[in-house]
Design brief:
Number of helices: 5
Number of domains: 2
Shape: rod-shaped
Oligomer: single chain
CATH architecture of the largest domain: Orthogonal Bundle
Helix content: over 70%
Strand content: under 5%
């Protein structure tokens, strides 16, 4: 019976390692996707910065066209002044010319503002480009590391699965079936020690007779509370805690 418990403990240790490898392996793809998402975010920020620069430049050119339009109007009004003989029309045209000049000043003020905004936007493009380049390089490096780790995990996992087949075959059908059922319901901690009269799985106090039977190591003993398989080794204290 001692050999059976030993075999179950070795099988349980193998299952724990398999689960740990599987858990780590399950995080590889989310890790890759997270790195790609961060890279995409920095690239989006860069595109937004570039778009702002283009928009500001377009707005500035539109203002330049507005200035040229106003200057053309001024020339037309000036020509009309030369042709008119009526003072009232002359003064009206002069007023229109003055209005155009004031509007040109306002447009030129807005052009200056756009130029200042454009300088800041261009600086943002430089900063965003650096951030995007750094994020892309970091992602490439880390994804490369993840890919390497993924292959290592897959290799180790394949070896442990192969080893598990041999370990599982070394356990009799009955105890192995009980172990497998417990693994599905309790997780990876199903073959547990008895210390101070307490189950190492559910941590509930065990009946004294059950503790004595476990110490005898002649049969498969299970916890009366959680059903886990119990075992005892000489370094465990069977004194029931108060």
């Amino acid at each position: 019976m001692l050999d059976l418990i030993d075999n179950l403990l070795v099988l349980q240790d193998c299952d724990r390692k398999i689960r740990k490898l599987e858990e780590e392996l399950s995080q590889i793809e989310p890790g890759r996707l997270g790195l790609l998402a961060r890279t995409a975010d920095t690239q989006t920020s860069l595109e937004n910065a570039r778009h702002l620069v283009r928009q500001l430049e377009s707005n500035r050119k539109n203002l330049e066209l507005d200035v040229e339009t106003k200057k053309t109007q001024i020339l037309r009004y000036a020509n009309q002044q030369l042709q008119t003989r009526k003072n009232e029309e002359y003064r009206a045209l002069a007023k229109e010319i003055e209005t155009c000049k004031e509007e040109i000043k306002g447009i030129e003020d807005r052009e200056i503002e756009l130029m200042e905004q454009s300088e800041k936007a261009q600086a943002s493009v430089v900063s965003a480009t650096q951030a995007a380049d750094q994020a892309r390089k970091l992602a490439q490096d880390q994804i490369g590391q993840l890919n390497t780790r993924e292959k290592e995990l897959q290799h180790d996992l394949a070896q442990f699965h192969a080893s598990r087949e041999n370990l599982s075959a070394a356990v009799e059908d009955g105890p192995r079936g009980r172990y497998e059922r417990l693994m599905r319901s309790k997780g990876e901690n199903v073959v547990v020690g008895v210390d101070h009269g307490v189950c190492g799985g559910c941590h509930m106090k065990l009946p004294p007779q059950l503790v004595i039977s476990c110490q005898a190591r002649k049969d498969i003993i299970t916890c009366s509370n959680c059903g886990r398989i119990l075992y005892y080794t000489s370094d465990m204290d069977l004194t029931i805690a108060d």
